[in-house]
Amino acid sequence: MSANSRLTIAAHALAWIGLYQRQGHEVATSEKIAASANTNPVVIRRLLGELRRAGLVESRRGAGAGWSLARELGSITLLDVYDAVEPGPLFAMHRTTPDQGCVVGHGIQPAMRGIYRDIEETLRDELARVTLEKVLGDVLAAPRRPL
Amino acid sequence: MSANSRLTIAAHALAWIGLYQRQGHEVATSEKIAASANTNPVVIRRLLGELRRAGLVESRRGAGAGWSLARELGSITLLDVYDAVEPGPLFAMHRTTPDQGCVVGHGIQPAMRGIYRDIEETLRDELARVTLEKVLGDVLAAPRRPL
DNA sequence: ATCTGCCGTAACCATTACTGTTACGACAGC
DNA sequence: GCTGTCGTAACAGTAATGGTTACGGCAGAT
Protein backbone atom coordinates (compact mmCIF):
# COMPACT_ATOMS: atom_id res chain seq x y z
CA MET A 1 0.00 0.00 0.00
CA SER A 2 3.11 2.19 -0.04
CA ALA A 3 2.89 2.82 3.68
CA ASN A 4 4.40 6.03 5.00
CA SER A 5 6.13 6.90 8.24
CA ARG A 6 4.06 9.98 9.14
CA LEU A 7 2.27 8.43 12.10
CA THR A 8 5.53 6.98 13.37
CA ILE A 9 7.46 10.25 13.10
CA ALA A 10 4.60 12.25 14.61
CA ALA A 11 4.40 9.86 17.56
CA HIS A 12 8.17 10.07 17.92
CA ALA A 13 8.03 13.86 18.03
CA LEU A 14 5.22 13.94 20.58
CA ALA A 15 6.91 11.42 22.84
CA TRP A 16 10.15 13.36 22.56
CA ILE A 17 8.51 16.67 23.47
CA GLY A 18 6.65 15.05 26.33
CA LEU A 19 9.78 13.54 27.82
CA TYR A 20 11.73 16.75 27.28
CA GLN A 21 9.15 18.76 29.15
CA ARG A 22 9.16 16.28 32.03
CA GLN A 23 12.87 16.90 32.28
CA GLY A 24 12.06 20.53 33.01
CA HIS A 25 12.50 22.17 29.62
CA GLU A 26 10.04 24.70 28.32
CA VAL A 27 10.09 24.19 24.58
CA ALA A 28 11.59 21.72 22.14
CA THR A 29 13.16 22.77 18.85
CA SER A 30 12.57 21.05 15.55
CA GLU A 31 16.31 20.66 15.22
CA LYS A 32 16.64 18.59 18.38
CA ILE A 33 13.64 16.46 17.52
CA ALA A 34 14.96 15.93 14.01
CA ALA A 35 18.30 14.81 15.42
CA SER A 36 16.55 12.17 17.51
CA ALA A 37 14.46 10.97 14.57
CA ASN A 38 17.43 11.23 12.21
CA THR A 39 15.65 13.38 9.67
CA ASN A 40 15.48 16.99 8.52
CA PRO A 41 14.09 19.74 10.81
CA VAL A 42 11.72 20.87 8.04
CA VAL A 43 10.12 17.44 8.01
CA ILE A 44 9.49 17.78 11.73
CA ARG A 45 8.16 21.33 11.41
CA ARG A 46 5.76 20.25 8.67
CA LEU A 47 4.40 17.38 10.72
CA LEU A 48 4.18 19.42 13.93
CA GLY A 49 2.38 22.10 11.96
CA GLU A 50 -0.35 19.58 11.19
CA LEU A 51 -0.46 18.55 14.84
CA ARG A 52 -0.78 22.21 15.79
CA ARG A 53 -3.75 22.63 13.46
CA ALA A 54 -5.30 19.66 15.26
CA GLY A 55 -4.70 21.33 18.62
CA LEU A 56 -2.20 18.79 19.90
CA VAL A 57 0.85 21.05 20.16
CA GLU A 58 1.66 24.75 20.30
CA SER A 59 4.57 26.68 18.87
CA ARG A 60 6.34 29.83 19.97
CA ARG A 61 8.24 32.12 17.65
CA GLY A 62 10.99 34.60 18.21
CA ALA A 63 13.99 34.01 20.42
CA GLY A 64 13.70 30.97 22.65
CA ALA A 65 11.12 29.61 20.25
CA GLY A 66 10.03 26.00 19.92
CA TRP A 67 7.26 23.50 20.45
CA SER A 68 5.29 22.40 23.45
CA LEU A 69 2.40 20.07 24.11
CA ALA A 70 -1.06 21.62 24.04
CA ARG A 71 -2.48 18.59 25.86
CA GLU A 72 -1.21 15.96 28.26
CA LEU A 73 0.28 12.89 26.60
CA GLY A 74 -2.34 10.82 28.39
CA SER A 75 -5.17 12.65 26.65
CA ILE A 76 -3.72 12.29 23.14
CA THR A 77 -4.41 9.05 21.28
CA LEU A 78 -2.92 7.64 18.12
CA LEU A 79 -6.30 8.32 16.53
CA ASP A 80 -5.86 12.04 17.18
CA VAL A 81 -2.45 11.88 15.53
CA TYR A 82 -3.71 9.70 12.68
CA ASP A 83 -6.53 12.11 11.89
CA ALA A 84 -4.07 14.99 12.01
CA VAL A 85 -1.51 13.56 9.61
CA GLU A 86 -3.38 11.05 7.42
CA PRO A 87 -5.88 12.62 5.07
CA GLY A 88 -7.55 9.91 3.01
CA PRO A 89 -9.31 6.60 3.53
CA LEU A 90 -7.49 3.30 3.89
CA PHE A 91 -8.82 1.70 0.69
CA ALA A 92 -9.65 3.46 -2.55
CA MET A 93 -12.52 2.83 -4.94
CA HIS A 94 -12.12 2.40 -8.70
CA ARG A 95 -10.39 5.37 -10.31
CA THR A 96 -13.07 5.44 -12.99
CA THR A 97 -16.76 4.66 -12.57
CA PRO A 98 -17.45 0.96 -13.17
CA ASP A 99 -19.91 -0.07 -15.90
CA GLN A 100 -23.30 0.81 -14.44
CA GLY A 101 -24.96 -1.43 -17.00
CA CYS A 102 -23.31 -4.46 -15.36
CA VAL A 103 -24.86 -5.83 -12.18
CA VAL A 104 -21.49 -6.12 -10.49
CA GLY A 105 -20.28 -2.81 -11.83
CA HIS A 106 -23.38 -1.16 -10.49
CA GLY A 107 -23.40 -2.70 -7.02
CA ILE A 108 -19.70 -3.03 -6.21
CA GLN A 109 -19.07 0.49 -4.96
CA PRO A 110 -21.94 0.71 -2.46
CA ALA A 111 -21.03 -2.79 -1.29
CA MET A 112 -17.35 -2.06 -0.75
CA ARG A 113 -18.05 1.32 0.78
CA GLY A 114 -20.14 -0.30 3.49
CA ILE A 115 -17.56 -2.98 4.13
CA TYR A 116 -14.68 -0.51 4.25
CA ARG A 117 -16.62 1.77 6.56
CA ASP A 118 -16.96 -1.01 9.14
CA ILE A 119 -13.31 -2.00 8.84
CA GLU A 120 -12.03 1.53 9.21
CA GLU A 121 -14.28 2.04 12.18
CA THR A 122 -12.59 -0.90 13.87
CA LEU A 123 -9.17 0.48 12.98
CA ARG A 124 -10.09 3.82 14.51
CA ASP A 125 -11.25 2.12 17.70
CA GLU A 126 -7.88 0.43 17.99
CA LEU A 127 -5.96 3.65 17.36
CA ALA A 128 -8.09 5.45 19.95
CA ARG A 129 -7.16 2.81 22.51
CA VAL A 130 -3.48 3.81 22.48
CA THR A 131 -2.47 7.03 24.22
CA LEU A 132 0.82 8.80 23.68
CA GLU A 133 1.39 8.23 27.39
CA LYS A 134 1.45 4.51 26.64
CA VAL A 135 3.72 5.08 23.66
CA LEU A 136 6.23 6.92 25.84
CA GLY A 137 5.90 4.20 28.46
CA ASP A 138 6.67 1.54 25.87
CA VAL A 139 9.59 3.61 24.60
CA LEU A 140 11.11 3.86 28.05
CA ALA A 141 10.49 0.17 28.65
CA ALA A 142 12.74 -0.83 25.74
CA PRO A 143 15.83 -2.70 26.99
CA ARG A 144 18.89 -0.47 27.14
CA ARG A 145 21.44 -3.01 25.98
CA PRO A 146 20.02 -5.94 24.03
CA LEU A 147 22.36 -8.92 24.40
CA MET B 1 -1.66 7.17 2.96
CA SER B 2 -2.01 7.20 -0.80
CA ALA B 3 -4.55 4.39 -0.74
CA ASN B 4 -4.80 2.20 -3.81
CA SER B 5 -7.69 0.38 -5.43
CA ARG B 6 -6.12 -3.05 -5.65
CA LEU B 7 -8.29 -4.72 -3.03
CA THR B 8 -11.39 -3.14 -4.56
CA ILE B 9 -10.56 -4.23 -8.10
CA ALA B 10 -9.58 -7.72 -6.99
CA ALA B 11 -12.86 -8.12 -5.09
CA HIS B 12 -14.70 -6.80 -8.12
CA ALA B 13 -13.05 -9.37 -10.37
CA LEU B 14 -13.73 -12.27 -8.01
CA ALA B 15 -17.37 -11.31 -7.55
CA TRP B 16 -17.72 -10.95 -11.31
CA ILE B 17 -16.21 -14.36 -12.02
CA GLY B 18 -18.35 -15.95 -9.31
CA LEU B 19 -21.56 -14.51 -10.68
CA TYR B 20 -20.55 -15.38 -14.23
CA GLN B 21 -19.96 -19.00 -13.30
CA ARG B 22 -23.33 -19.19 -11.53
CA GLN B 23 -24.86 -18.09 -14.78
CA GLY B 24 -23.46 -21.25 -16.36
CA HIS B 25 -20.30 -19.99 -18.00
CA GLU B 26 -17.05 -21.88 -17.78
CA VAL B 27 -14.40 -19.21 -17.85
CA ALA B 28 -14.28 -15.43 -17.68
CA THR B 29 -11.94 -13.36 -19.82
CA SER B 30 -9.88 -10.45 -18.57
CA GLU B 31 -11.46 -8.34 -21.28
CA LYS B 32 -15.00 -8.82 -19.97
CA ILE B 33 -13.96 -8.25 -16.38
CA ALA B 34 -12.05 -5.14 -17.40
CA ALA B 35 -15.15 -3.81 -19.18
CA SER B 36 -17.17 -4.19 -15.98
CA ALA B 37 -14.48 -2.51 -13.85
CA ASN B 38 -13.86 0.09 -16.56
CA THR B 39 -10.14 -0.47 -16.73
CA ASN B 40 -7.55 -2.16 -18.92
CA PRO B 41 -7.46 -5.97 -19.34
CA VAL B 42 -3.78 -6.02 -18.44
CA VAL B 43 -4.58 -4.49 -15.07
CA ILE B 44 -7.02 -7.33 -14.47
CA ARG B 45 -4.61 -9.99 -15.68
CA ARG B 46 -1.91 -8.64 -13.38
CA LEU B 47 -4.18 -8.70 -10.34
CA LEU B 48 -5.66 -12.11 -11.16
CA GLY B 49 -2.13 -13.40 -11.61
CA GLU B 50 -1.45 -12.50 -7.99
CA LEU B 51 -4.69 -14.16 -6.93
CA ARG B 52 -3.65 -17.27 -8.88
CA ARG B 53 -0.35 -17.38 -7.03
CA ALA B 54 -2.37 -17.30 -3.82
CA GLY B 55 -4.52 -20.21 -5.03
CA LEU B 56 -7.76 -18.26 -5.29
CA VAL B 57 -8.30 -18.52 -9.05
CA GLU B 58 -7.10 -20.62 -11.97
CA SER B 59 -6.39 -19.67 -15.55
CA ARG B 60 -6.60 -21.59 -18.79
CA ARG B 61 -4.57 -20.76 -21.85
CA GLY B 62 -5.08 -21.48 -25.51
CA ALA B 63 -8.38 -21.15 -27.34
CA GLY B 64 -11.37 -20.72 -25.03
CA ALA B 65 -8.99 -19.50 -22.39
CA GLY B 66 -9.92 -17.47 -19.32
CA TRP B 67 -10.25 -17.43 -15.56
CA SER B 68 -12.21 -19.47 -13.07
CA LEU B 69 -12.46 -19.68 -9.30
CA ALA B 70 -10.18 -22.16 -7.56
CA ARG B 71 -12.35 -21.97 -4.43
CA GLU B 72 -15.95 -21.23 -3.58
CA LEU B 73 -16.72 -17.55 -2.98
CA GLY B 74 -17.88 -18.51 0.50
CA SER B 75 -14.44 -19.83 1.42
CA ILE B 76 -12.52 -16.78 0.21
CA THR B 77 -12.20 -13.84 2.59
CA LEU B 78 -11.03 -10.29 2.04
CA LEU B 79 -7.99 -11.23 4.11
CA ASP B 80 -7.04 -13.83 1.51
CA VAL B 81 -7.34 -11.19 -1.18
CA TYR B 82 -5.54 -8.58 0.90
CA ASP B 83 -2.60 -10.88 1.52
CA ALA B 84 -2.49 -11.72 -2.18
CA VAL B 85 -2.41 -8.16 -3.48
CA GLU B 86 -1.00 -6.02 -0.67
CA PRO B 87 2.64 -6.70 0.11
CA GLY B 88 3.75 -4.44 2.93
CA PRO B 89 2.66 -3.39 6.40
CA LEU B 90 0.09 -0.68 7.06
CA PHE B 91 2.46 1.75 8.82
CA ALA B 92 6.13 2.27 8.09
CA MET B 93 8.97 2.89 10.50
CA HIS B 94 11.53 5.68 10.09
CA ARG B 95 13.31 5.58 6.76
CA THR B 96 16.62 5.95 8.57
CA THR B 97 17.62 4.53 11.95
CA PRO B 98 16.77 6.98 14.76
CA ASP B 99 19.52 8.23 17.06
CA GLN B 100 20.28 5.23 19.27
CA GLY B 101 22.00 7.52 21.73
CA CYS B 102 18.66 9.20 22.50
CA VAL B 103 16.27 7.41 24.82
CA VAL B 104 13.32 8.07 22.55
CA GLY B 105 15.28 7.30 19.40
CA HIS B 106 16.35 4.02 20.91
CA GLY B 107 12.98 2.85 22.17
CA ILE B 108 10.59 4.21 19.59
CA GLN B 109 10.86 1.46 17.02
CA PRO B 110 10.30 -1.51 19.33
CA ALA B 111 7.42 0.42 20.90
CA MET B 112 5.70 1.26 17.64
CA ARG B 113 6.31 -2.19 16.21
CA GLY B 114 4.41 -3.76 19.09
CA ILE B 115 1.58 -1.28 18.80
CA TYR B 116 1.31 -1.66 15.04
CA ARG B 117 1.38 -5.43 15.32
CA ASP B 118 -1.70 -5.39 17.54
CA ILE B 119 -3.53 -2.94 15.30
CA GLU B 120 -2.81 -4.87 12.12
CA GLU B 121 -3.89 -8.05 13.83
CA THR B 122 -7.25 -6.46 14.48
CA LEU B 123 -7.47 -5.27 10.90
CA ARG B 124 -6.77 -8.77 9.66
CA ASP B 125 -9.48 -10.19 11.90
CA GLU B 126 -11.96 -7.77 10.35
CA LEU B 127 -10.89 -8.60 6.81
CA ALA B 128 -11.14 -12.31 7.57
CA ARG B 129 -14.72 -11.78 8.70
CA VAL B 130 -15.88 -10.79 5.21
CA THR B 131 -16.25 -13.51 2.59
CA LEU B 132 -16.50 -12.85 -1.13
CA GLU B 133 -19.88 -14.55 -0.88
CA LYS B 134 -20.99 -11.66 1.31
CA VAL B 135 -19.43 -9.15 -1.07
CA LEU B 136 -21.41 -10.60 -3.96
CA GLY B 137 -24.53 -10.62 -1.81
CA ASP B 138 -24.05 -6.94 -0.97
CA VAL B 139 -23.41 -6.19 -4.64
CA LEU B 140 -26.65 -7.84 -5.69
CA ALA B 141 -28.53 -6.10 -2.86
CA ALA B 142 -27.71 -2.65 -4.24
CA PRO B 143 -30.87 -0.85 -5.38
CA ARG B 144 -31.32 -1.01 -9.13
CA ARG B 145 -32.60 2.51 -9.66
CA PRO B 146 -31.77 5.00 -6.94
CA LEU B 147 -34.36 7.80 -7.01
C1' DA C 1 17.80 49.30 17.82
C1' DT C 2 20.18 45.50 16.50
C1' DC C 3 21.32 40.69 16.94
C1' DT C 4 20.16 36.04 17.19
C1' DG C 5 17.70 31.72 16.98
C1' DC C 6 14.02 29.37 15.45
C1' DC C 7 9.55 29.08 13.20
C1' DG C 8 6.72 28.99 8.79
C1' DT C 9 6.56 28.07 4.28
C1' DA C 10 7.68 27.91 -0.53
C1' DA C 11 10.25 25.58 -3.98
C1' DC C 12 12.60 21.93 -5.94
C1' DC C 13 14.33 17.18 -6.43
C1' DA C 14 14.73 12.05 -6.14
C1' DT C 15 12.42 8.00 -5.23
C1' DT C 16 8.68 5.05 -5.26
C1' DA C 17 4.07 3.10 -6.20
C1' DC C 18 0.12 2.79 -8.93
C1' DT C 19 -2.41 2.70 -13.04
C1' DG C 20 -2.95 2.63 -17.86
C1' DT C 21 -1.24 1.36 -22.36
C1' DT C 22 1.10 -1.00 -26.22
C1' DA C 23 3.35 -4.88 -27.77
C1' DC C 24 4.40 -9.54 -28.48
C1' DG C 25 5.49 -14.35 -27.59
C1' DA C 26 3.19 -18.73 -25.85
C1' DC C 27 -0.31 -21.78 -25.59
C1' DA C 28 -4.26 -24.87 -26.81
C1' DG C 29 -8.35 -25.95 -28.99
C1' DC C 30 -10.52 -25.83 -33.51
C1' DG D 1 -2.22 -23.45 -39.36
C1' DC D 2 -5.75 -20.03 -37.31
C1' DT D 3 -7.56 -17.80 -33.59
C1' DG D 4 -8.38 -15.97 -29.12
C1' DT D 5 -6.56 -15.25 -24.73
C1' DC D 6 -3.07 -15.48 -21.35
C1' DG D 7 1.55 -13.91 -19.48
C1' DT D 8 4.70 -10.49 -19.22
C1' DA D 9 7.84 -6.87 -20.43
C1' DA D 10 8.29 -2.10 -21.25
C1' DC D 11 7.13 2.51 -20.92
C1' DA D 12 4.57 6.79 -19.59
C1' DG D 13 1.84 9.77 -16.63
C1' DT D 14 0.39 10.91 -12.11
C1' DA D 15 0.81 11.36 -7.31
C1' DA D 16 2.68 10.91 -2.60
C1' DT D 17 6.55 10.97 0.30
C1' DG D 18 10.65 12.59 2.24
C1' DG D 19 14.84 15.34 2.00
C1' DT D 20 16.97 19.73 1.07
C1' DT D 21 17.84 24.72 0.46
C1' DA D 22 16.32 29.16 1.00
C1' DC D 23 14.39 33.05 3.09
C1' DG D 24 11.14 36.12 5.39
C1' DG D 25 9.14 36.96 10.06
C1' DC D 26 8.90 36.99 14.80
C1' DA D 27 10.33 38.07 19.67
C1' DG D 28 13.39 37.90 23.38
C1' DA D 29 18.19 39.21 24.65
C1' DT D 30 21.84 42.43 24.46
Automatic annotation (TrEMBL), chains A, B:
It holds the Pfam family Rrf2. PROSITE patterns: HTH_RRF2_2. It comes from the Bacteria. This is Rrf2 family transcriptional regulator. It comes from Streptomyces pseudogriseolus.
